[in-house]
Amino acid sequence: MKTNVISLDNKAVGEIELADEVFGVAVRTDLLHRMVSYQLSKRRAGTHKTKGISEISGTTKKPFAQKGGGRARQGSLRSPQFRGGATIFGPVVRSHAFDMPKKVRSLALRTALSAKAAEGKLIVLDQAKLSAPKTKDLATRLKALGWGSVLVIDGPALDDNFALASRNIPFVDVLPSVGANVYDILRRDTLVLTKDAVAALEARLK
Fold first, then answer.
1. Both 81 and 171 in a single domain?
2. Does the reported pTM lie above 0.70?
3. SS (HEC) of 75-132
4. CA 200, CA 115: separation in Å to the nearest integer?
5. According to the UniProt record, where is the region Disordered (predicted)?
6. Do 128 and 187 fall into the same domain?
7. Exposed e or buried b per residue across 117-151, where buried means at least 16 C-beta atoms within 10 angstroms of its C-beta
8. In terms of domains, do 125 and 170 share one?
9. Which residues span the domain enclosing 103?
């Protein structure tokens, strides 16, 4: 499929052919959901923790005699029914990550790219470069282009001026091609790829 290539000044500078096996895949929302769950679970810290009965500081002595007191039998003051006692089946430090086959992850990324292309929200940019790291200048250009919520994916390396200028603009993310992922693509309204990014993604996903 062919699409136009524009510049940061919103001028047409040519056309580019997008590979159908990367940008023309059938959209599967179940696959996108699985991939987003995979990414968000993988980045969870998992540092939540409560104390079990073996970790509570306190005596191990039986509070009172088993029989004859007219009270319910108790074996420990560290039990969960007492103030300061243990938590039963509480969270422990663990990893929330789960496995997903590499081919499925690759297909999910191609699906996310294809979904943006199908919605008409995939734009190819000539190059994401600025002569100076001026946030105001870049913000003005993005506003003129109508990009309020946008993810810009560049080639293997980012232009330092563009990366610095975009850093403080809300709802604008900039990634190198190696960092392209399903979650970041879906969380922004518009996806902008440079010509270098298209070449890198096609080489990676074909």
1. no
2. yes
3. CCCCCCCCCCCCCCCCCCCCCCCCCCCHHHHHHHHHHHHHHHHHCCCEEEECCCCCCC
4. 19
5. 49-78
6. yes
7. beeeebbbbbbbebeebeeeebbebbeebebeebb
8. yes
9. 2-45+98-205
Q: How many domains does the chain have?
A: 2
The closest of 3, 27, 17, 23 to 206, measured between CA atoms, is: 23
State whether 109 and 57 are in the same domain.
no
Structure tokens at 15: 């056309």
Instruction: List pLDDT tens digits, range 118-173.
Output: 999 999 999 999 999 999 999 999 999 999 999 999 999 999 999 999 999 999 99
Which domain-ending residue is among 90, 110, 144? 90
Residue 1 has what pLDDT?
86
**CATH code at 123?**
3.40.1370.10
- The 10 Å Cβ neighbour count of residue 192 is 25
SS3 call for 12: strand
